[in-house]
Fold this protein.
Amino acid sequence: MNVLYRHLKKRFESFGTCDLGATAIEYALIAGLISIVILGGVVSLSGGLSSLFNAVSNAIN
């Protein structure tokens, strides 16, 4: 029983000091923010490009 207690105690003490998962979460958040910015840019440009192509199409006809 004492061996199990020491093993669990060591595991819980090292749980607070391990930061490998935090780095992965930070990278995931950064990638998510970049994708939101790209998506916002594409959405805002799509209306302008559509009207530009319509104007060019009408000018050709």
User: Anything to note?
Assistant: Residues 19-60 form one domain. The mean pLDDT is 83. DSSP finds two helices and no strands in the chain.
